[in-house]
Amino acid sequence: MKSRLPAALAEDDEYDLTPMIDIVFLLLIYFMVTTALIKEEADMGIKLPANVPPPPNADLPQEQVVEILASGEVRLNGARMDGMDSRMMPDLTRTLQRLKAANDRGGFKTSVTIIADADSLHQRSIDVLNACASADIKFVMFAGE
Length: 145
Description:
The chain is α/β, with parallel strands linked by helices. It has helices spanning 7-10, 18-42, 90-106, 122-134; strands at residues 63-68, 74-76, 79-80, 111-116, 139-143. Strands 3-2-1-4-5 form a five-stranded mixed beta sheet, with helices on one face.
């Protein structure tokens, strides 16, 4: 009598390696192409700003004078800043940040003197104080006209 094994056990287990070899070749091609792109990007010769020396410091006043007029107009060292409706005062903040950075490079402390007109709104003084705080200026004083 001949014993019969189930059909699943009688077959030799064989694995088809073709899909795995295809994937290996695709990965090989992918890494070869991306390595070539990385080398090309490295050879562009771009000079990053960190490698460029900073411009020489100009002689800037260490004390900045902010005037608040009765109309609500704000002037920094005589130059008109943001509009009268601007509460965030982005121009004043950016200018104060640049002046502070230049003074910091020179080793000086930046101070701001606020001269507010007696008829100006107090909110305008608060807006200027907020701009000074955003520019990280800690030496702020009020002066009379």
